[in-house]
Fold this sequence. Notes:
Layout: H1 2-9, H2 17-41, H3 45-56, E1 60-61, H4 89-96, E2 110-111, E3 116-117, H5 127-137, E4 148-149
Parallel strand pairs: 3-4
Antiparallel strand pairs: 1-2
Amino acid sequence: MPAALAVDSVRYSIADADARARWAANVSAPMLAGAFAVAWEWENTGLVSELVEYHSARGTFSGVPERPAMGEWASTTTATALADTEPEPALAALAAAGPPAQTGNSLTRLGPLPPLRMEPDAEPIMSHYRALAFQRYGRAVTATEPAWSTWP
Length: 152
């Protein structure tokens, strides 16, 4: 779970919308599918529900000027790992490629959501896994804002 959340959170550092979509489709989606499969095999319906809620809420738009793109990928460097050859490894590199980010205000710049709360008296969803993603991979999965309520 923490690895899937950390990989998915990388998309917030991708300024180009097309590159972000390629990352989501070719890198993030397979990781999140694995997280869903694990939760399903555990028969953890609560976690499956939280993953559905997390996956349905895709981010916030920023009207703040974009920061330079240089160095954004440095935090994702890890040791070499074996990966399945499907999809082709070249797709992962292509997913991260894109034209350089332009500076200025843009509603195409996606930012992380604040934590989500599904129940009035409950902790925000996946708090433990989000904390592990930060501890293990240095990736903040959500913004540091008060939790958003997802119930009416």
